[in-house]
Amino acid sequence: MNSYSRFLFCFIVSLQVLSAQQSITSAKVGFEFVSNNVDGTIEGFQTSSKVFPDDLTSSEFEGSVVVNTLKTGNFIRDWHLKSSKYFDEEEYPLITFKSTEVIPIENGLKVMGVLTIKGISKTISWHFQKDGNTLRGSTSIFSSDFNIKIKNDREANKVEITLILQLG
After folding, report:
1. 108 in Cβ contact with 125 (< 8 Å)
2. Cβ neighbours of 44 (radius 10 Å)
3. CATH code assigned at 143
4. Is the CB of residue 126 less than 8 Å from the CB of residue 137?
């Protein structure tokens, strides 16, 4: 195979790989602070993820949400949560996640990665299920692990997070 043929072959393979990649067109992030039965949403989702529907384990998930968009249905509580005592939106305006590994599991995917809140990074795992062009994920964290201490007991700071990603 001459150099022109190798170039053409590599170019065609690259186009096939690029065409198989899908982008995330939208996301919905929800949460529940379990011990207080308080739920809410957070928006401003931005991503540079690379999703390969035919080979999800080759995918890379990376994104952020904007702390200022946190909503619980109570304006005073939202304002308080965004203050320096809790999320400190002025100093830390984004919450970020970057995957380190994507593992197939029964009925879906396990996405391991690093979640950063208030400048504190922790490894977490998401469990996703694929339904057509939708990925539905969930994880649990403890807000106190990120210096957001609502309750004194670590277990009482449990937050369930859901993430719904639309692929396009």
Report:
1. no
2. 16
3. 2.40.128.110
4. yes
Per-residue model confidence as pLDDT tens digits over 67-114: 999 999 999 999 999 999 999 999 999 999 999 999 988 878 999 999
Q: How far apart are CA 5 and CA 131, in angstroms?
A: 40
Who's near 23: CB < 8 A, 6+ residues apart? 47, 49, 51, 167, 168
158 lies in which domain range? 22-167
User: Tokens 């053409």 identify what position?
Assistant: 8
Give the predicted TM-score (pTM) of the model: 0.86
**Span 36-47, pLDDT tens digits:** 999 999 999 999
Q: Considering the domain boundaries, does residue 8 fall inside one? A: no
